[in-house]
Amino acid sequence: MLLESVEYVCPESVDEALRALGAVDGAAVLAGGQSLLNVLKNRVASVEVLVDISRLPELRTIERGADGSLAVGACVTYDELDRSADVRQGHTVLADVASHIEDQQIRNRGTIGGNCCLGDPTNNLPPLLIALGATMNIQSASGIRQVAAEEFFFAFFSTAVEQGEILRSITIPAIAPGAGVGYQSLAVAADSKAIVRASAYVRANGTIEDARVVLSVVGPRPIRHTGMEGRLRGAAATAEAVAAASEAIGDDIEPASDAHGSADYRRRMARVVARRAVDEAIARGASR
């Protein structure tokens, strides 16, 4: 199906983009366009103006801070994340996940900001960014406000970015000594939507000192599973202890049933991928 007639604006700066977004209620941001254009072509939604921010240089940067933190512009593509020496130096898991998103054509166009701002609970990067403790930097005409990744995702296709705002960048803190990050996904096929995803941040020294466990595709937004986190803290950093902690995941999550799996199946698989993500995080931390 062809795209309906729509006004197209290609601003030369973030300020110009914000003015264009504020001028019309029906304006929308176009970054990679991998999801938005399909939505518009299928008449699921309509917009009056597309404001293309994909070429703005200030949104295409990757910078590593002196403290080891990472600042990633919202329009950095998956392929650029994969190929970035700065990303691979201290946040290898982010590059690894980006390198496996769909196919190369999508990785050439899809952006980290678009992946987050769509608010699709099946998307790859949101649970990982929450596990990493990332901060989302949202810009409007009045300035920049910061929102923790954990609080950025509201519900299906709903995030903290409001009309007239753009996600400018994402700040990811350095991974602490002795800590590691894991990411696991269960999908119908390699290039299909996920059935369930999990990401984990674990800091351990024989004993697990801190843990963040994030599940997605088990509800309308990614969630931290504080029950499993509580069981992990103070436990031995062993596969047996992790498996026992994963039993905390149960009726407290409410995944949907569909053609690919029942709610009960997703609930059981959430325990499996969470356990695998934590095991991976422990192994990554031990090898640093």
How would you summarize what this structure contains?
This protein is α+β, with helices and mostly antiparallel strands.
Note the gap between the termini.
50 Å
Average pLDDT number:
94
Gross morphology is globular
Largest sheet: 5 strands, antiparallel
Q: In order across it, which strands form the biggest sheet?
A: 4-5-10-6-7
Key terms:
four-stranded antiparallel beta sheet; single chain; 288 residues; five-stranded antiparallel beta sheet
Describe the structure.
This protein is an alpha+beta fold. The protein is built from twelve helices and 14 strands. The protein has helices spanning 14-23, 36-41, 78-83, 85-90, 92-98, 104-109, 112-117, 125-131, 149-152, 226-232, 239-246, 263-287, and strands at 7-9, 27-30, 49-52, 62-64, 70-73, 135-140, 143-148, 153-155, 158-159, 166-172, 179-187, 194-205, 207-216, 223-224. The strands form four sheets. A five-stranded antiparallel beta sheet has the order 4-5-10-6-7. A four-stranded antiparallel beta sheet has the order 11-12-13-14, sandwiched between helices. A three-stranded parallel beta sheet has the order 1-3-2, covered by helices on one side. Helix 10 packs antiparallel against helix 11 and helix 11 (239-246) packs antiparallel against helix 12 (263-287). The longest helix is centred in the last third of the chain and has 25 residues, at 263-287. The radius of gyration is 19 Å and the shape is globular. The chain starts with 6 loop residues before the first strand and ends with a helix. The model has no long low-confidence stretch (mean pLDDT 94).
